[in-house]
Design a protein that fits this description.
The chain is of the alpha/beta class. The protein contains twelve helices and 13 strands. The chain has a single domain (29-330), classed as NAD(P)-binding Rossmann-like Domain (Rossmann fold, 3-Layer(aba) Sandwich), CATH 3.40.50.720.
């Protein structure tokens, strides 16, 4: 049987790009106990999972809003009535994305690799003196070329995908306390158990000097995402704030923009064969952010709109999550604030009363 040149190139690229896909073979996944099962699946779209949900009066923050599932998440939440604050490294690109959305949106600049930028973004949101109902940590970085990039002494995947969002959550946490039911949604990946180091977070080698690859670094950072959400769920127990992480699915978005064109083409082929549409890719984010069924669900990991546990992985390793939190605090200490419960008497109908200091 003969194979045409174009098809041969496509198949070769797809095979080369296969490590970029975080397929689930070899891992036993079971429904998470105590979490309501949804009626949705891998083909459900963000519009379908939010149908009938009224988000009027709610404020959502979506990082990485300019394309892919971040843009679709912003679009659908605005469609349901939320005021969506969309962030991007480029304020101009964030503005362009917001203008393409029907509903109330506000663009902000956020460079997750620059903690000063994270603080400025958070302070701009805090200046609204309003609750934040949904904080969706969607922005992500995937390097290319298998050459380590170190920024301020930190490996770039770990810095952008984990530590930048760690600081952002810290700076906005009191605004989530003011919401009737604040939700933190961490967009992770199956790479957290497919591509991360076998031993989990490399606390003795956070810059990944040993046996570096971009796939390993990406998986390392995505495991940090899941463990961060796991620990956050534990720390917020007893509050009205929840934190959950998720895998959106395999989607041909700009996450592979830093890899070479051959691998980009292969990723596109594989995503077309085994992946989701952008509309379906945003479904789990929107479901976790809005579903009335999940008001008390926290510290869970979701795939295809259902909470699962992945056996023989580090996703539920509480000791590792606790240590990661401590290390993350040490690495970002100069940019963190200490939290106390808000004084509810200062607020009325979700807004700070006029005439008070700081209004």
């Amino acid at each position: 049987m003969s194979i045409g040149r174009r098809r041969f190139i496509g198949l070769s690229a797809a095979m080369a790009a296969a490590p970029l896909l975080t397929a689930c073979s070899g891992y036993k996944k079971v429904p998470a106990a105590g979490v309501p099962r949804s009626d949705f699946d891998e083909d459900s779209t963000a519009e379908q999972v939010t149908e009938g949900i009224d988000l009027a009066g709610k404020i959502a923050v979506v990082t990485g809003c300019t394309s892919g599932i971040g843009f679709e998440t912003m679009r659908v939440l605005a469609l349901r009535g939320a005021w969506v604050i969309g962030t991007s490294r480029s304020l101009e690109r964030a503005g362009d994305a917001c203008r393409r959305v029907r509903g109330k949106t506000t663009p902000l600049a956020l460079e997750l690799a620059d903690f000063d930028s994270v603080v400025r973004c958070a302070e701009t949101i805090r200046a609204l003196n309003s609750p934040v109902d949904m904080l969706i940590l969607n922005a992500g970085y995937r390097g290319g070329g298998n050459e380590r990039t170190i920024v301020d002494g930190v490996e770039k995947h770990f810095l952008v995908n984990h530590l930048g969002h760690f600081v952002l959550v810290n700076r906005l946490l009191d605004r989530l306390f003011l919401a009737w039911q604040g939700r933190i949604v961490v967009v992770a990946s199956r790479a957290a158990y497919r591509s991360a180091p076998e031993a989990g977070i490399r606390f003795d080698d956070l810059t990944l000097e040993r046996n570096y690859s971009d796939s390993l670094a990406y998986g390392h950072s995505k495991l940090a995402n899941v463990l961060f959400s796991l620990e956050l769920g534990k720390l917020l127990k007893g509050t009205r704030i929840t934190s959950n992480s998720l895998h959106p699915g395999v989607i041909n978005t700009q996450i592979d923009r830093n890899v070479n064109r051959f691998l980009q083409f292969g990723f596109g082929v594989l995503a077309a064969l085994r992946g989701k549409s952008v509309e379906a890719g945003a479904a789990t984010s929107c479901y976790v952010a809005t579903s009335p069924l999940l008001g008390s669900t926290s510290g869970r990991y979701f795939e295809d709109c259902s909470a699962i546990e992945v056996r023989d992985s580090h996703l539920q390793d509480m000791a590792m999550a606790d240590r990661l939190w401590f290390v993350s605090e040490e690495l970002t200490r100069d940019y963190l604030v200490k939290h106390e419960r808000p004084d509810w008497s200062e607020f009325e109908n979700g807004l700070r009363k006029t005439g008070r200091e700081g209004s």
